[in-house]
């Protein structure tokens, strides 16, 4: 069964009103999903992000890239309101992160999850419905039907009752993607969604992201494989504590910006240069 978002209609366009199940509403800024203004984040008084100012467009697949320690995950968490800001301001769909949560789905790093927690794949996916239900209502028939549908879309329907600790890494990642899908969000934030998955799962994830974009959604993902950036993403944010560059992959993912982002890491740069060459030369990868 092909991967697809659960919504039958398209996402709201620029300037349209959005509303959530709990009554929150807002107006989608024209063409802008996320606005980050002069954001600094510090851990124990040491800046991890410094004066980052970037806008992320709607209806794009956006990669956040940079070397280890560049602040990629921190930027993602700052946008989501999961870490305090030392300074600056962030808006999601024109709203503060806290108010925008009903419109957002988040897939954390797989390594950050306690996979020994005794829940099934179905239980994990149903957790994605609590934003709509509230913590004091139990999932009903429609919620379970939605969970079954997204598990089917990610190829996990047959393992819905399996404990998450008994799943492979790729299967676990598919379950967390299903949990994000069942939220019927407008923005999807993912922290290294391809890390540690098999080739089949990686292809399935790429197809899923493309279908989210085709339906009017936006995906922002921390990504580490420079070779696949031109193939998987149409917009890139290049980070090394400070913002280095941001824009369409075709222009921003350039040799100059890669050198500025990664410095002398020659192996990474060689891989990235090959990816740039392939993306710029029709038929080069055939």
Structure, described:
With 286 residues, the protein is of the alpha/beta class. The protein is 34% helix and 24% strand. It contains eleven helices and eleven strands. It has helices at residues 72-80, 97-100, 121-127, 130-133, 141-153, 169-181, 199-214, 229-232, 249-252, 255-262, 266-280, and strands spanning 17-19, 25-27, 32-43, 46-57, 61-65, 87-92, 104-107, 187-191, 218-222, 235-240, 242-248. Helix 5 packs across helix 6 (169-181). The radius of gyration is 19 Å and the shape is globular. The protein starts with 16 loop residues before the first strand and ends in a 6-residue tail after the last helix.
Low-confidence stretches: 1-26
| CATH topology assignment of the largest domain | Rossmann fold
Largest sheet: 6 strands, mixed
Structural class assignment = alpha/beta
Shape: globular
Rg on CA atoms, Å:
19 Å
Number of strands: 11
Q: What is the CATH C-level name of the largest domain?
A: Alpha Beta
The total number of structural domains is 2
Distance between the termini: 28 Å
Strand content: 15-25%
Number of helices: 11
Q: SSE string, helix = H, strand = E?
A: EEEEEHEHEHHHHEHEHEEHHH
Q: How would you name the CATH homologous superfamily of the largest domain? A: P-loop containing nucleotide triphosphate hydrolases
The CATH architecture of the largest domain is 3-Layer(aba) Sandwich
Strand order of the largest sheet: 7-8-9-5-10-11
Overall mean confidence score, pLDDT: 82
């Amino acid at each position: 069964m092909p991967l697809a978002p659960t919504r039958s209609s398209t996402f709201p366009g620029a300037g349209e009103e959005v509303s959530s199940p709990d009554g929150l509403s807002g107006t989608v800024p024209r063409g802008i999903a996320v606005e980050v203004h002069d954001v600094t984040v510090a851990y124990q008084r040491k800046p991890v992000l410094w004066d980052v100012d970037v806008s992320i467009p709607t209806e794009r697949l956006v990669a956040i890239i940079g070397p280890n320690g560049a602040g990629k995950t921190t930027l993602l968490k700052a946008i989501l309101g999961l870490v305090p800001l030392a300074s600056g301001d962030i808006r999601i769909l024109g709203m503060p992160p806290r108010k925008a949560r009903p419109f957002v789905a988040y897939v954390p790093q797989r390594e950050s999850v306690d996979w020994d927690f005794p829940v099934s794949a179905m239980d994990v996916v149903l957790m994605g419905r609590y934003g709509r239900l509230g913590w004091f209502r139990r999932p009903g028939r429609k919620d379970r039907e939605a969970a079954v549908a997204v598990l089917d879309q990610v190829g996990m329907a047959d393992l819905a009752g399996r404990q998450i600790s008994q799943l492979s890494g790729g299967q676990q990642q598919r379950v967390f993607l299903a949990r994000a899908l069942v939220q019927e969000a407008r923005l999807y934030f993912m922290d290294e969604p391809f890390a540690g998955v098999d080739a089949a799962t990686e292809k399935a994830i790429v197809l899923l992201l493309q279908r989210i974009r085709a339906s009017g959604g936006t995906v922002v993902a921390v990504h580490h494989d420079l070779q696949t950036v031109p193939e998987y993403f149409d917009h890139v944010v290049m980070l090394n504590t400070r913002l280095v560059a941001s824009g369409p992959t075709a222009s921003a993912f350039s040799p100059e910006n890669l050198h500025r982002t990664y410095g002398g890491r020659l192996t990474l740069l060689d891989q990235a240069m090959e990816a740039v060459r392939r993306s710029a030369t029709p038929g080069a990868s055939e």
